[in-house]
Amino acid sequence: MTHQPTVAGVPVSGEHWIGGRRVGGTGRFTDVSPIDETPVAEISRGTAADVDAAVEAARTAFASWSRTSREERASLLHAIADGVEKRLEDLAIVETTDNGALLRSHRRGVMPRVAHNFRFFANWLVDELDHPDFDTRGHRNHVSWDPAGVCALVTPWNAPLMLATWKIAPALAAGNTVVLKPAEWTPLTASLFADIAAEAGLPDGVFNVVQGYGAEAGAALVAHPGVRRISFTGSVPTARTIAAAAAPNLVPTSFELGGKSPLVVFADADLDLAVDLAVEQYDNAGQVCLAAVRLLVEESVVDEFRARFLARAAKLRQGDPRDETTDLGPQVHRRQHEKIDGFVRRAVEAGAEPLLGGGPNTELGGLYYRPTLLAGAAEGSEILTEEVFGPVLTLQTFRDEEDAVRLANSTRFGLAATLVTGDESRAERVSSRLVAGTVWVNCFFVRDLRAPFGGSRESGIGREGGTWSFDFYCDVKNSVFAPREGN
């Protein structure tokens, strides 16, 4: 028996997608909407047997998919993008129901970006993935990117489909087959995407979805001997577990992990811009890995910055994410809501002062947490060093450039950093010293797929984007040809 719930008027299967067909699980779990904590679907709870079936389907499909031409693969990726664009409204409303992010963001930015991810890697495969041949004592060297095999993709809940397609698109473009394990809190758009890919003509078994819990389906997938690549976005502890599971099979891994990014504001900065960038860090209810949650402001302008920030943040509207006027929706899950509140309570008990928010939004109830700004936390304290992943920012001051760099680099993370200054030479100088995979200067969240993306320190291993993605999802090979006879 298959389960086909209707979510916000859109039919969505709760079953796995394996080998081009729906496969029901022996167990189930309930998917709950964070908007009002009501059940929306019963989802198949994947087992090791389901993972075995999906990996076998992917291995079987790899034999033919890996031999298709670049042009054929690119054409199918464009067809998938077409399908995403046709069903953009369905994807947007289902994902908002499932993870509580703003519907207007899904419509205008997130789901269009899903289609863009496929078009980008399709075009890169055909037009850009190349290395010129080179000569070694008359011998011709030729570099090629060979498909690696079955890719296990384990993806997060904060932007479920968009972040998954950062991985799915290059993996398929490279000629690999995929088994996706979406986050159990937000499984629905992965299921919808399977239907879109099949309708676009993607051969059976090339893309598979196994729903379920990380400790069950996820653990079986990353330890499977039939997998040749593992890509994961999520927490550091889970990455350590995955790395240990991958080690016996010597499977290459790519990890995009946590962050505790700084936003550094110098006295010569445009303060209106700095405040706008700071308030933007509450986007998606603070559930953004790249968010610059540590506001570091030069002492001489901190009073003015704080006053402008509080005035600007007071205008944020929290409420139902389906409402076009809402700026902040709910946290994704009761467990996440309680985790955030625990961080804030402990920080306040340790001496931090809430300048804004500081607790749940009791007027809305449920999973809504007020946008929060904490000041006065001691250096090295939990709230300044651990990832909260909620609408919680901290405010610190620095004396000079050297002090700013010291504070910015004072965590074990290094995912991103944002720098606001009117001095071009300072921008170059400071950005070169910040430990981060991405540094934004007088801007935020400008993400081009041609650029490398990833983290330093405990924020990750590897880079995604452009040829960097193909370097991971392929076995890069060099073929050396001897000179022709007579040459």
From TrEMBL:
InterPro entries: Ald_DH/histidinol_DH (IPR016161), Ald_DH_C (IPR016163), Ald_DH_CS_GLU (IPR029510), Ald_DH_N (IPR016162), Aldehyde_DH_dom (IPR015590)
Keywords recorded for this protein, A-Z: Oxidoreductase
Pfam families with a match to the protein in the record: Aldedh
UniProt KW Oxidoreductase keyword: yes
Residues covered by the Aldehyde dehydrogenase domain: 28-478
Active site: E256
Key word Oxidoreductase present: yes
Family: Belongs to the aldehyde dehydrogenase family.
Name of the protein: Aldehyde dehydrogenase
Species this chain originates from: Amycolatopsis samaneae
The organism's taxonomic lineage, starting at the top: Bacteria, Bacillati, Actinomycetota, Actinomycetes, Pseudonocardiales
